[in-house]
Amino acid sequence: MAAVDLSTHPGHLARRLQQAHHLLWNAMVSEEITSPQFAVLNALIAEPGLDQRGVGERVRLDRSTVADVVGRLTRRDLLDKVRDPQDGRRALLRPTAEGRRVHRRLTVRAARMNEVLLAPLADEERALFLSLIQRVADAAERLRDPLAETVTPS
Amino acid sequence: MAAVDLSTHPGHLARRLQQAHHLLWNAMVSEEITSPQFAVLNALIAEPGLDQRGVGERVRLDRSTVADVVGRLTRRDLLDKVRDPQDGRRALLRPTAEGRRVHRRLTVRAARMNEVLLAPLADEERALFLSLIQRVADAAERLRDPLAETVTPS
DNA sequence: CGGAAATAGTCAGTGTGCTGATGAAATCTC
DNA sequence: GAGATTTCATCAGCACACTGACTATTTCCG
Question: φ and ψ at A98, to 5 degrees?
Fold first, then answer.
């Protein structure tokens, strides 16, 4: 008695969704490169030369996790990591040629995987689905970092 | 160039949602008991005497993870774990009195937390949000275990 | 009954994800 | 310019989460 229906708990559903995604990713995208690794690679293709802090901001990972993921990617020679000569604290990251190749290949496969994952939803529902999750996640992230509101000027 | 917009990737959004949830859980529900631990406890309050496999089925965790989580809960004396005398392979689990107390307390707090997490959505959107995630997760889980469809007869 | 197959649990190994402590480098301030 | 503060990275420690290998027990079947 007094037990709760977990299907009304967004946290539980989020975990299930992630599991489902993880499963499909392994089956349809890659067994070697994980989805967070792809996200990091993707951020560095968009902005080569970013440091770890910058990557973490873009893909929403904390410092420690970024260091781990970057470590794995550099070990596989998908990333180059060099000390910033201008600022000895920073490690500048950029994708290798191989990293760009892998990224290109996985991008295509990830698109196919997303199709399968979202197959149960009608077209209009898909956009809605994505925007609802994003609104909830955005709001919660804003709770964490107080302000930083509105558009950041150049 | 050729970088992807991760906000169109449900997997990435799922991870961000989970992170947001994790954060709020820590702040508003408990720093000691995690959300998966609560889920396991909840399953055993609904059905005391379940074995680990049964728990894993209910909360969607694999055998190894269930063993980990159950280990932590028994170490904290929130769960009792005894060998099934009828079937020596099984470990029968049931919540302790303390486990029930903790569960009751966290249930109230989790409800408050869910309110905050879903605050950015209007009432109708919340139900929609939950049902969309559930449909996607359900469908993906069905991909994993072929059949097992329809109602399982008594 | 007795061997083969199925089932429950454990263990080792890997990867994500967090916090908190530490160290190194840059910047700010007096 | 020297000391305090901030910033970037690393490390240890914990918790989830999966796979694959292994053990113990039970069940199934000849």
Answer: -60, -40
pTM of the model: 0.90
* Positions of E strands within A1-154: 79-83, 91-95
pLDDT tens by residue, B59-106 = 999 999 999 999 999 999 999 999 999 999 999 999 999 999 999 999
Contact B3 A104 (CB under 8 A): no
DSSP B93: E
The answer to whether A140 and B22 have CB atoms below 8 angstroms apart is: no
Judged by DSSP in three states, B138 sits in helix
Residue of chain B whose alpha carbon sits nearest to that of A58: B6
| 3-state DSSP assignment of residue B95 | strand
Element (H, E) at A35: helix A35-46
Residue B92 corresponds to which tokens in the numbers above? 């029968």
**Å between B81 CA and nearest CA of chain A:** 19
Instruction: Quote the pLDDT of residue A145.
Output: 66
- CB distance B93 to B79 below 8 Å: yes
User: CB-based burial of residue B128 (10 Å sphere; 0-12 exposed, 13-18 middle, 19+ buried)?
Assistant: middle
A47 SS3 class: coil
Which among B57, B13, B113, B99 is positioned nearest to A8, based on CA atoms? B113
Q: In whole angstroms, what is the distance from residue A2 CA to residue A145 CA? A: 35
What is the rounded average pLDDT of the residues A40-52?
Answer: 96
Residues with CB under 7 A from strand D: A 15, 19, 22-23, 51-53, 63-64, 67, 70, 89-91; B 34, 36-37, 60-65, 68-69, 72, 86-89
| Alpha-carbon span A118 to A126, nearest angstrom | 7
